[in-house]
Amino acid sequence: MDTEPQPGSGDYVGQLADHARRLQGEARDAIARGEFTRASALIGDAELLAEDVHGLVGDMERRQLGDLTLLATYDIRALAAAAPVRLPPPPRRSLRLAIGATLAMSLALTEC
After folding, report:
1. Would the pTM of this model clear 0.85, i.e. be above it?
2. What are the φ/ψ torsions at residue 85 (nearest 5 degrees)?
3. Are residues 27 and 49 in contact, defined by beta-carbon separation less than 8 angstroms?
4. In this structure, are residues 31 and 41 in contact, taking their beta carbons and an 8 Å threshold?
């Protein structure tokens, strides 16, 4: 079973843009022949098609930016969820001295 690759949305945009250019070319030929009504209609059609292509490209870009933002959000969450940096415990002797100093200060304050 032969499967042809499906054209992407960029291919459709290219086809629509090519068609708009063909319409513009036909309009130039119609102007050269003096068919101004036909040329005006062709130019109008080409403008409408160009606006549609512009809107489609804008929608595609917004969707891609949304996808990239979503990926970036996941990356940030992964970094934020990392384990916090733990400080090494103080040495035992200094801990004993600190506790002793605290007790001595509290006794001195309560004696007054």
Report:
1. no
2. -70, 125
3. no
4. no
